UniProtKB/TrEMBL annotation:
This is HAD-IA family hydrolase. Keywords: Hydrolase. GO terms for molecular function: hydrolase activity. The keyword Oxidoreductase does not apply. The lineage of its organism: Bacteria, Bacillati, Actinomycetota, Actinomycetes, Kitasatosporales. InterPro entries: HAD-like_sf (IPR036412), HAD-SF_hydro_IA (IPR006439), HAD_sf (IPR023214), PGP-like_dom2 (IPR023198). The keyword Hydrolase applies. It holds the Pfam family Hydrolase.
Length: 233
């Protein structure tokens, strides 16, 4: 079948080219942001605390250290951050063992990127043990590279994960398109100099220069991501 989608690296009229695509995991490719909140609520219930729903927007999309640390602080729970991290990862891994639902459009987008041999990285704040379990559903062969939150000095909202992914793939960050679902992830990608497609999962995200907001991955394809690179900074 002949495709009209520009091949990766093809120059556009503006002289730019899409060199790589970076995708967040929780809430972007897999419908698991709700799982994390359920697990956090369950673990804190075991500790004798009830989580306020208003805290959900604070912890969504954040690294484990920030999210767990915040919940310890606001609840006053008698537990250390390392202890809580183990409990949360253990409970979440058990939860996703019962199945991981894909976000609408995720399988189609990954298949299209793979078919066109676009360098694609999974860039997540989740720890490696969690990413490896989710890859059993997403497919390891769909990604050129995966970056976990516990494999970089600073994870989202810092730019380190995306700068690391770009360096590993030999790509210029400003020629990389990022798909994210949270303000934390968007901040990380934009700080790295990438162009961003925001697909909000829990809290709204406003459009901005170099950023496009859509309602679903079903609105995103390779042609869309290629055009994103031509947007002004």
């Amino acid at each position: 079948m002949t495709s009209t989608v520009p091949a990766p690296g093809t120059r556009t009229a503006e002289g730019s080219a899409l060199q790589a695509v970076f995708l967040d995991m929780d809430g972007t490719l897999v419908d698991t942001e709700g799982f994390w909140w359920e697990v956090e609520a369950e673990v804190f219930a075991d500790l004798g605390h009830v989580l306020d729903e208003a805290w959900r927007d604070v912890v969504v999309g954040g690294p484990m250290t920030r999210s767990a640390g915040y919940l310890i602080e606001v609840t006053g729970a008698d537990i250390t951050l390392p202890e809580l991290t183990v409990l949360l990862n253990d409970r979440f891994e058990k939860r996703i063992g019962r199945g991981v639902p894909l976000m609408p459009g995720a399988a189609r987008l990954l298949a299209e990127l793979a078919a066109h041999e676009v360098p694609t990285a999974l860039v997540s704040a989740s720890h490696r043990r969690i990413i490896d379990r989710v890859l059993e559903t997403l497919g390891r062969d769909m990604f050129t590279l995966t970056v976990a939150g516990d494999e970089v000095p600073r994870t989202k909202p810092h730019p380190d994960p995306y700068l690391h992914a770009a360096a590993r793939l030999g790509a210029d960050p400003w020629r990389c398109a990022v798909v994210e679902d949270t303000a934390t992830g968007v901040a990380a990608a934009e700080a790295a100099g990438c162009r961003v497609v925001a697909v909000p999962s829990v809290a709204p995200i406003a459009p901005a220069r170099g950023r496009v907001v859509v309602g679903s991955l079903e609105e995103v394809d390779l042609a869309f991501l290629t055009t994103l690179i031509t947007l002004p900074n």
